[in-house]
Design a protein that fits this description.
LarA-like, 6-stranded mixed β-sheet, 14 helices, LarA-like N-terminal domain-containing protein, 20 strands, alpha/beta, 31% helix
């Protein structure tokens, strides 16, 4: 009898897909790391033993104006903030001296949800600020970079006595690794800086290789005098696999190591089919999640192979995907996307590039006509996915793929 591997994938908001794949056909099966059961206990532990810096209570004193810069993509953000506040409160910090600074996002519900989930003292007395990048009153001049670029940041950062970034660490097609200050810039800068930072990824580079925007982010962290940092590594869905706290440089270095350990895939061979599950995350479940997912799929699937995406996406197409939907061929979208720089530039670009490389099949809640306009085959239900697997093709499987990065094993 042929040995089989039991596959179980969570996808979307509440979907679960199960199947069996013969082991001889399975090239790679990547599962999400386990989540931390007690985030508060882990937070207490890391806050009391920062990496390469003295205890936090030596860095803040009563009366300090403290800005907590929150990356809205960080899982368990409310639990992390509550633990930070418990520590600050024990140090004699007043809630009225705390500013919770967030970037604007597509959904105001994200900010409201975070505020509703934190300590009531913070809800009522802290300042809750949504950064307005197009407001001249909101941003101030930090300095000029080594490359001659004038840097502007939120005044809530410039005028703070102490800044604590809370960031999700993840793979990023533009800067290699997100985290280590990347939530500060360009997110809390000017609208001009935010638009200028958009790009179509560096496919030829691995995450560890140097990129100009990443170098600028590191320089801005130094210019701002960032010292302490909280870096959150995701587990599956909206849970946390690890939290690292201490100096910005040390935490980012450690967090990148953990991210590689948990989420970097390096199979030896490409597969003829790749099955990818995408879950609801801290920012919701939408098309933008597919940017890095499709890049990984393109890296790991053979040309003209099949990419099967398991999602429950039901959101409208963004500007970039609409551009793609009006094209005759996938690659026809690349230049207009580069010219218009839409908010969903990465997702639309990766959809075009991947659609030209392989056959994309999508399980979602979006209408079949809209899906087909993206050069994608719509799947109606899990039974269609099961039928696709009834072949002799080699298969790779990725759980919680929105957090993963994949490339063939080097050497």
């Amino acid at each position: 009898m042929t040995e089989t591997v039991n596959i179980e994938l969570n996808y979307g908001f509440n979907g679960t897909f199960q199947c069996e794949i013969p082991s001889e056909r399975l090239i790679h099966y990547h599962q999400a790391p386990a989540g931390i059961d007690d985030v508060a206990a882990r937070m207490k532990q890391v806050l009391n033993s920062p990496l390469e810096l003295p205890p936090l209570d030596l860095a803040v004193v009563p009366g300090d104006k403290i800005t907590i810069a929150v990356d809205y993509q960080a899982p368990a953000a409310a639990e992390v903030i509550n633990s930070v506040w418990d520590y600050f409160s024990d140090c004699g910090i007043e809630a009225g001296d705390v500013t919770i600074l967030q970037t604007s996002s597509e959904s105001s519900m994200l900010q409201e949800k975070l505020k509703a989930a934190v300590n009531s003292e913070l809800q009522e007395q802290a300042s809750w600020v949504i950064h307005a990048p197009d407001s001249k009153e909101e941003v101030g001049y930090l300095g000029t970079s080594a490359g001659g670029e004038r840097i502007y940041l939120s005044r809530h950062l410039l005028e703070a006595d102490f800044i604590l970034p809370i960031e999700k660490v993840g793979f990023d097609p533009l800067i290699g690794y997100a985290g280590g200050g990347s939530s500060i810039y360009p997110g809390f800068s000017s609208q001009e800086a935010i638009i200028k930072s958009r790009g179509q990824s560096h496919r030829e580079l691995t995450p560890a290789e140097s990129r100009p925007l990443r170098q600028l982010i590191d320089e801005i962290g130094w210019m701002l005098g960032l010292q302490y940092s909280l870096q959150v590594i995701p587990a599956g869905g909206q849970s946390v696999s690890e939290i690292v706290f201490g100096s910005l440089e040390a935490t980012f270095r450690k967090a990148k190591q953990l991210l590689d350990e948990y989420w970097k895939l390096e199979p030896e061979y490409k597969s003829e089919m790749i099955v990818i599950a995408v879950e609801d995350g801290p920012t919701g479940h939408q098309w933008n999640q597919l940017g890095s997912v499709l890049e990984t799929a393109r890296n790991l699937v053979a040309q003209d192979g099949r990419i099967v995406l398991l999602t429950q996406i039901d959101s409208a197409l963004g500007e970039g995907l609409q551009i793609l939907s009006r094209c005759h061929e996938p690659l026809d979208a690349i230049k207009p996307l580069r010219d218009s720089q839409p908010g969903d530039l990465l997702a639309a670009t990766q959809m075009a590039l991947t659609g030209d490389w392989a056959l994309i099949c999508l399980l979602s809640k979006v209408s079949s006509d809209e899906v087909e306009d993206l050069f994608v085959i719509p799947l109606e239900d899990e039974a269609e996915v099961q039928r696709l697997l009834q072949t002799d093709e080699t298969v790779s499987v990725i759980a919680s793929a929105q957090y993963a990065y994949g490339q063939l094993k080097q050497g």
